[in-house]
Amino acid sequence: MHDMKYKFDWKRWLLFLIVSAGLLVLTRSFLMSLGIMMLLLLIDRLLAEWEKKRNEG
């Protein structure tokens, strides 16, 4: 088993759910909304990694 600690942030996922529902309403296209959400999740992850590196060193 992997011994990784992962904090599940309910507030962040609720915000992502609201944003994805809004995108679905605005674009009326599931695939476009999915693509935009994937980009937003990628940016969120990259910013989290950058902040972690910045705080360590």
Can you describe this structure?
Helix content is 79%, strand content 0%. It is mostly helical and 57 residues long.
> Which structural class do the helices and strands define?
mainly alpha
Gap from first CA to last CA: 30 Å
- Give the proportion of residues in helices: over 70%
Mean pLDDT score? 85
Strand content: under 5%
Which ranges are low-confidence, i.e. pLDDT below 50, for 5 or more consecutive residues? Answer: none
User: What Rg is obtained from the alpha carbons, in whole angstroms?
Assistant: 14 Å
Largest sheet: none
What is the H-and-E element order?
Answer: HH
Write down how many β-strands occur, each being a DSSP E stretch of 2 or more residues. Answer: 0
Number of helices: 2
What is the overall silhouette?
elongated
Q: In a few lines, what is going on in this structure?
A:
The protein has 57 residues and is an all-alpha fold. It is built from two helices and no strands. α1 runs antiparallel to α2.
Secondary-structure blueprint of this entry?
Blueprint: H1 10-27, H2 30-56
Helix pairs in contact: 1-2
Which descriptors apply to this entry?
mainly alpha; 57 residues; 2 helices
